[in-house]
Please model this.
Amino acid sequence: MNALDLDTPSVFIDLDILERNLRRMQELSRSLGVALRPHAKTHKIPEIARMQLALGAVGLTVAKVAEAEVMPGEDVLIAYPVLEPKLGRVRDLLRSRRVAVVVDSVEAAVPLREIPALVEVDVGFGRCGVPSPEDAVRVARACRTFHGLFYYPAGMDEAGVRRAAGIVKETLAALSAAGLRAEVVSGGSTPNAARTPLIPETTEIRPGTYALNDASVVALGSAAPEDCALRILATVVSTSVPGQAVIDAGSKTFSLNPTKVVGGYGRFVDRPWTLEKMNEEHGYVKLQGPARVGEKVWVIPGHAGTCVNLHDEIAYGRAGRVEGRWRVAARGRVR
Model:
């Protein structure tokens, strides 16, 4: 089946691009001398996770316990504060695989008992993470099984990563002075994977978006449009407003992610158009050049992870041909 014959809106993954992306990141991690623990929250598809593991990933990263429950592999890091009500499910996972969790408070650390824990340090993103080396020591001491340090460099520029390096170094020194050894220093992101040597204590990286890529990482300069494996096929349904077209894909297809990318909510392939606004089922397109009702267009979504999470299944194939469909097994698994 030709991918252009898919009913719209449809989500499609190009296998050639996907496999190239997976190989590149695995090769990069090897060249940097760090382990690769890819974040599965972006693709949410067990088949892609198996491909990552087969190429040499040491394990997976997930955001929530429920994602770990449907993902393959023998080693998983839950990169999110896991509080006591969920620990029974974590212990169930421990019966069949190695599991570590991330904490940034004594309240989360104390109930863990035998569960290995990484202490998250905030390196400037301002989300989770202890704010000082002293707090890192306090939380690590509360962990019966302290396993290491966790940081997230997000999309920081080089100067930001260098500042993060100082925070990581200072925190590790404080932990060492307190008699606490960090076996693992877990960091990395898709935009900053190549900057990992700036934080030389890093032992593993956790990029996620790299598998599919999206318009946001293209806007950041971390990928090119031809590196984006995830595409939305949409149809122009209206051109009634001069200078505008409407496609049959809105926020329920792409997602209304608050990190609006430069130039709109997605990037058109082979069209000089801008997806500048969305309602639930309508995508408002600012036109440059002609558009006709009924034509189908490919769009790279602005944010891959939230887009994937909206769909029960995703078609995949090569050279514009559909070879099958994958179920998005971790869709909606936010608990």
The chain has a mean pLDDT of 96.
